[in-house]
Amino acid sequence: KITLRRILNNGIATKTNLKKRGIIHSDQQKRCVLCNKQTESIDHLFFTCSASYLLWQLCYNWFRIQTVLPEQGKQHFTNHIVLWNKKKITKIWNTIWFIMIWNIW
């Protein structure tokens, strides 16, 4: 839950946030640790980076789910949890979402 709250409130120490805090100084240092192409923001790192997007696609494909993945954390989580309407499955599905986030981080 803490990680979700930090993602939704832009509280993860991504390179963009580290630059805002003065820890990283050059724009070159802001590149994503996974793809080394784009600026590393929360939305990019966890949802739109080619590497993390592939992981999400593999996860959904494993469950035989076809969906369009939102590019922002809140919409991504909301989209993720509404795929199931049974309480037990929803808990499992939420756990999978957190595991994916944790592994990307």
Automatic annotation (TrEMBL):
Protein name: Reverse transcriptase zinc-binding domain-containing protein
Pfam families per record: zf-RVT
InterPro entries: RVT-Znf
Ranges for domain Reverse transcriptase zinc-binding: 2-56
